[in-house]
Amino acid sequence: MLLVARPKRVSxxxxxxxxxxxxxxxxxxxxxAFTPLPSGATLPTDCATxxxxxxxxxxADNLEFSAPCLIAPADTAFTIRFTNHExxxxxxxxxxxxxxxxxxxxxxxxxxxxxxxxYHVDPMPAGDHFFDCIVHxxxxxxxYVR
Length: 146
Prior knowledge:
Blueprint: H1 12-28, E1 55-61, E2 64-65, E3 69-72, E4 78-84, E5 89-90, E6 93-95, E7 103-106, E8 110-111, E9 115-121, E10 127-132, E11 140-145
Parallel strand pairs: 1-4, 3-11
Antiparallel strand pairs: 1-2, 4-9, 5-8, 6-7, 6-10, 10-11
């Protein structure tokens, strides 16, 4: 005699709970993947850029960075002046790409509100790189090193 297992029935409540959990986890991991710019593309105009004193100004507020991208010079040290406007922890880390396999820099985690730190970053190779807040991985952006 051959026994055949019957598939379990799944309630609508369980399916909705699973869908909600998937949406929440997707938001926590940052959603869409980072995509480098096409060759020869113009850099976005809303990036934080370096000032005359070699400083890029970036801040965190409402679980968001003040700029979606940063522009830094290739093969030249620079500083990120980072201000945390919130009373929760934030930081900045720089990577070769969104896989985070190669980390170029990890800044000290700071708690605000309105606390500022200067991160001194060693020279980086030219390319389209990635940055995020290690504490809140959904806070992320592109780092264009030219």
